[in-house]
Task: structure prediction
Amino acid sequence: MHVTMIGTGYVGLVSGACFSEFGHTVTCVDKDTGKIDALRAGRIPIFEPGLEKLVATNVAAGRLTFTTELQRPVADADAVFIAVGTPSRRGDGHADLTYVFEAAREVAKALDGYTVIITKSTVPVGTGAEVARIVGEARPDADFDVASNPEFLREGAAISDFMRPDRVVVGTESDRAREVIRELYRSLFLNETPVMFTSRQTAELIKYAANAFLATKITFINEIANLCEQVDADVQDVARGIGLDGRIGNKFLHAGPGYGGSCFPKDTLALLRTAESLGLPLDIVKATVAVNGQRKKDMAQKIIDACGGSVQGKTVAVLGLTFKPNTDDMRDSPSLDIIPALLAAGARVRAHDPAGMDEARKLLAGIEYCDDAYDTLVGAHALAILTEWNAYRALDMPRVKALLQAPVLIDMRNIYDPQTMGNLGFTYISIGRPAVRP
Result:
């Protein structure tokens, strides 16, 4: 089939590359000339394991191309995906649908023959209906359907998530659209992947509800971690104890400095705004958003307390800047709250991240960026691990201790064993576990 992907951001690029791997002919369209030129030259604008190879393979096979011209790819397409950004609208938190509606208007002009227009972007309930209205008004003669096909890609594991998903959700009540989308995902049908067909508005809500639930789960275990610290309990054991319950499950029960990234912060807020506009406050989601925001601020104080109550004139080494490992994404990362708070308290900050430092430099000024994890530690009064990159999971701890001016380790991802750290002579502070001091 011929597929056109509007937008070459994270979702559009990964989805386009994966559809081409399924054997479809895919054209990715973007107005950003620099981005398209880079992609044509084989340079991938995002860090995602396996993506560079996947793109190169399918470009070489002639199944994947990149262009700034929309007219011909849309006219030739059986399916057009809208995969543009939907950031939080400045001032009120609603999803900004400007790019979605602009794409719909441009797609309408280029339609030629029956085409399924599919929203891949994360959009509030009712967006698909508005896209259909826009296209219908612009081209009353056009033969088309609008469907919703939300993405559930985890940064750092996006290709695997697309190729071997838990489920595929499709929102459409058109039999013709269903057949087109069945053919698009035929490889997954053969693998017996659950494919769920619903109404458009139901599919749109499934995406928001899923992200809000996962964000709530993270926030819940973070609050339990606070309680564990007060009563000398171990949050990891608590999480395992409740996660073994099949009704709860063990995923997203890892205590830490709060959720971030491109999805959870903006999607929980957008869901809140949608519900509030209908007179439904969604108090649980509202509490999740508030608690998570406060948690990031509290983590800076945790570091300050570990340094004896003041970081004035002290150096703090920070390992990990991105919101999670295996990505260069800095959006709403806890580091964006923690590091400025440390600077404001008078600390000097030295930092390292395996993939995120280029992005971090755009967002975090006044800190020293180091090329090596160990170089980051030299003379520091404390080490804070903010992101659980594999490179930080097996540090040479005697070397770490020798490089630090004071053997203080604040492990916000619980990747080290408290007793081992205590035996090595560290003051070891983690999340939801008793502090250990030599």
About this structure: The mean pLDDT is 97. The chain has two domains: 2-198, 226-429. DSSP finds 18 helices and 14 strands in the chain.
